[in-house]
Amino acid sequence: MPDNSELPPSVIKNLSDGKYGGAAWRLSPIYHEGELIGFLFISASDRINEEILSGIAGIAFAGLNAIIKNIVKRVFTTELHTTVVQRSYEELLEINRNLAASEKNYKELSETLEQKVLERTEELKRAYTRLLQQEKMASIGQLAAGVAHEINNPIGFIYSNLNTLKKYIGNLNEIIRFYKVKGQELEVIGKDAEELYKKLKIEFIMSDINDLIKQSTDGAERIKNIVANLKGFSHIDEAADREISINTEMDNTISVLSHEIKARSAEIVKHYGKIAGFFGNPGLICQAFLNILLNALHSKDDNIIVTIKTEQHGNNAVISIADNGKGIPPDIQSRIFEPFFTTKDVGKGMGMGLTVAYDIISQYGGNIEVKSEMERGSTFVITLPLKRTGLME
After folding, report:
1. How far does CA 242 lie from the centroid of its chain?
2. Which CATH architecture has domain 235-393?
3. pLDDT digits (tens, 9 = 90+) for 22-68
4. Angle, alpha carbons 207-212-213 (nearest 5°)
5. Are 296 and 325 in contact (CB under 8 A)?
6. pLDDT for position 247
7. Of 205, 213, 222, 349, which cross-links 342 as Cys (Cβ 3.0–4.6 Å)?
8. Domain range summary for the chain, segments of one domain joined by +
9. Mean pLDDT of 172-182
C-alpha cells in the first residue's frame, strides 16, 4: 500500500470515513514521462486473499497504463498531424499566393512579349519585302546592263551606216548636179563625167548602198526583238494572272539572258515537251526561271552547258534546269534556299536569288528540289501543279 502522504486528500477522506470498507485494497499511482497523472484504486472483500488482489491490481495497472500510453500517443500523433496539415495548408496558401503573383507577372510579360513579337515580325516582314525588292531590282539592273549592251551593237552600226549613207547621198547629189550643169556640153561631158564618176566611187556606192540599208534594217529588227523579248519577260502590259505556256516563258527568260549567255560562252540545250497551260503570273514565273538560270550560268567559269527539260507528269508541270558546273557541296545543299545564304564573295550577291525563286514556286503550290554532285553539276527540278488539261506547245 502507498504511504498516505502520496494519496490525494479526497481518497484519504473516503478511507477515513469507511467508504471503501473492503478488507483488502490496492492503490497504485500512475505516471507518464515521470509525472504523476493519477491513481489506480482496487478494493475487494476480505474473502480475496492478498495474492489474487495483487495479481488483479497488476493486470489492471498494466492494461490501464497501456491504454493511457496509447491515448497519449494518439493525441500526440493527432496534434502532430494537425500541426503538419496546418503548416502544409499555410505553405500551400503561400505557394498559391506566389503562383498567383507569378501568373500575373507571366501574363503581363506574355502580353508585352507578344506585342514585341508582333512588332518585330512586322519589322522583319518589311525588311524581307525590301530585300526581295532589292533582289528584283538587282536582277532588273543586270538584265538592263545586258540589254543595253545588246542594243548598243545594232545601234552602233546603224549609226555608222547612216553616216556612210549620208556621204554616199552627198556624192550622188554631186554627180547629179554635174550632169544637170554640164548637160549642154556634150563634147566634154563624157570625159569629165567619167573622171567624176571614178572620183566619187559611184560604182562602189551603188553596190554598197543596198548592203547598208539591209544591215540597218536587220539592226532595227534586232532592237525590236530585244525590246519585245524584254517586254515579254516583264509582262508589263498584261494582267497579273492568266493562262501561260511554260515553254514560252522559258524562251522569254532565255532571250533576255542572251548577253549573259554569250559573255560566258554558254550553250543552252532545250528539250521541251507538251505541257498544259499554267494559270499564274507570268512575270513571277519568269523571275523564278531567271534566278535559277543565272545560278546555272555562274556554276563555273567556262564551257558551261545548261540543259533545260520540260514535261508533264499527271497534273504537274516538271521543269529541270541542269548544268555541268562545279556542283554544290553536300554540307550546304540544305541551305541554298535560305535568305542571305551565298557562296559568292562579299558584294557579289545578297543570297536572295534562290530564295525568291523558291518563294515564287511555293506561292503556286509547287516545290523545288536540287540534286548535285561535286564536279559533275547540279540539277534544279521545279514542280508546278496544273489546273488545265489542254496541252500547249
Report:
1. 28
2. 2-Layer Sandwich (3.30)
3. 456 666 676 666 666 666 666 666 656 666 667 776 777 677 777 77
4. 105
5. yes
6. 94
7. 349
8. 235-393
9. 72
Question: Residue 142 corresponds to which cell in the numbers above?
Answer: 543586270
Angle in degrees, 0-180, between the axes of helices 282-297 and 246-256, rounded to the nearest 10: 50
Residue ranges in 36-49 assigned as alpha helix (H): none
Task: State how far the Cα of 293 lies from the Cα of 254, in Å rounded to an integer.
Answer: 8
What sign results for the dihedral spanned by CA atoms 23, 29, 30, 36?
positive
pLDDT score, position 331: 86
Please give the span between the terminal C-alpha atoms of the chain, in angstroms, as a whole number.
Answer: 129
Q: How far apart are CA 185 and CA 4, in angstroms?
A: 189
Q: For residue range 373-386, what is the model confidence (pLDDT) as tens digits?
A: 998 899 999 999 99
Residues β-bridged to residue 30: 38
- Give phi and psi for 348, each to the nearest 5: -105, 0
Residue 131: which of 337, 294, 352 has the closest Cα?
352
DSSP string, 268-311: EEEEE--EE-EEE-HHHHHHHHHHHHHHHHTSSSSS-EEEEEEE
Question: b/e map of 228-241 (b: 16 or more CB within 10 Å)?
Answer: ebbebbbbeeeeee
Q: How far apart are CA 77 and CA 347, in angstroms?
A: 81
Q: Could you give the CA distance from residue 285 to residue 363 in angstroms, rounded to a whole number?
A: 10
- Give the integer Cα–Cα distance in Å for 204 and 167: 12
Q: If pLDDT is split at 50, 70 and 90, which confidence band does 223 have?
A: confident
- E strand segments, the chain: 24-32, 35-44, 242-244, 267-272, 275-276, 278-280, 305-313, 316-323, 367-373, 377-385, 391-392
3-state DSSP call for residue 19?
Answer: coil
CA–CA dist 330, 372 (Å, integer): 8
Q: How many CB atoms lie within 10 A of CB 346?
A: 6
Cα-based angle 347, 352, 354 (whole degrees, multiple of 5): 125
CA distance 81 to 77: 6
Give the length of the chain. 393
Distances 275 to 80, 310, 388, 390 between C-alpha atoms, Å: 86, 8, 10, 8
Query: Which residue stretches of 182-201 are H helix?
Result: 186-199
